[in-house]
Write a structure and sequence with these properties.
By secondary structure, the protein is an alpha+beta fold. Helix 2 packs parallel to helix 5, helix 2 crosses helix 8 and helix 9 packs across helix 10.
Amino acid sequence: MTQNNEQQNCYDIAVIGGGINGVGIANDAVGRGLSVFLCEKDDLASHTSSASSKLIHGGLRYLEHKEFRLVREALAEREVLLSKAPHIIRPMRFIMPHQPHLRPAWLIRTGLFFYDHLGKREKLAGSNLVQFVPETSPLKDEITRGFEYSDCAVDDSRLVILNAMQAREQGAQIVTQTRCISAQRENGVWTVQLENEHGQYQIQAKVLVNAAGPWVAKFIKQDLQLKSQYGIRLIQGSHIIVPKIYEGDKAFIMQNDDQRIVFAIPYLNQYTMIGTTDREYTGDPNQVEISQDEIDYLLDVSNDHFKVQLKQEDIISTFSGVRPLCDDESDNPAAITRDYTLSLSQDHENEAPLLSVFGGKLTTYRKLAESALDQIRKFFPELGKSWTEKALLPGAENLDSVESLIVEIENKIKGIDAETAQRWAHAFGTRVWKFLGHATSIHELGQDFGHGLYAQEVDYLVDQEWAMNSLDILKRRTKLYLKFDENAVQALDEYLVSLHERRLQKDVA
């Protein structure tokens, strides 16, 4: 039924790619009155957007590369996003141990002065000097002082999903596990060929937005049979996750001899996440995984700073992604611009336009989307005004504080453990009541898959958040993947298969 409707539609814009830039553009566009279609070949946020350092940050090190516009925009966006989604974004203090032979103190102080004052800062505290006491510091005794400043931590994949939900609630058509196999300009519009497990179908759109991330240039050349205006450099970034190597909720930003920096970030209460690397990647973005060189690099940087000495067998998990950066012909992967480039392609007035997104970062997705809408404004005279700056993302509505919501959940659901109440409040905000409904006990939440995951939540994730399989749920929706063993994953997969079968039977009936 849906397919027939899709085939009849000519949308204002069709977006290819369900990462943060794609859903950000789709959300902004539909909120301004445009009809929007978005397709993602896998799951939402299944590639670069869930393989980040999970930070909303100004990019302190970008100042060294004189990226002042990007840093100013990113610093201002920290405050905007904190207000839009306080359940999935939280302030975090960062400590930079001072290594005099790498960067002099005056240079760091100057950088932090800019960092404190370049962007509008209301919620976040400024920077200061810190002294380390050997008896209590997790750092090696020879590291005696450093600098502390503010940025934010974020659940990256949930940021993508919440934007997609908001777009859908305003009327956008969002489909996952659906690949765009080709698109042609015909009579002033795009005819877009799509393929999913049920077969092929097509839609039409007045404007095509290529937000395919690592595949942005490949999509232009192979699927559209056109020439790309910009080259793309794929830069691999990898992280390791280890048991917590220090107490407290502050992150560390470690300098290295190669002038790069590596973060050590508290992760999911009991782990430390260490990353990221920066190396050129030439393989298939679908197959990216950490290399032995990257593992050694991250372990060395951590061991140069912390008293707890890590070995390879301490690594619980790893993840890698590729950042699709606009090729500025820099020799150093770390120095390639993190700024975004928007390329509008239209050879003559009656030709359907193509807007391609090169680069970008999680923090500035909303501003990138506004820039994209500015680029295509001339094709839509009735386009509404920008609106996303003040609009709360799903789950932030009527949220007094995450702490008060946790208490509310604990009071209402008898038998709930504190860890699950916290996870629900941070992941869903006030939308948690959508799947808890009238339940007053954990025994009313259906099958228990372990670690605080119950059938009622799984059903909600399938119904409302495009989840299809256990990886979608455990890695990108709940972050429970580090706790589930093979048997628990298998039980969840079996439940999902039976759930999909029940739905199919219901649809047929």
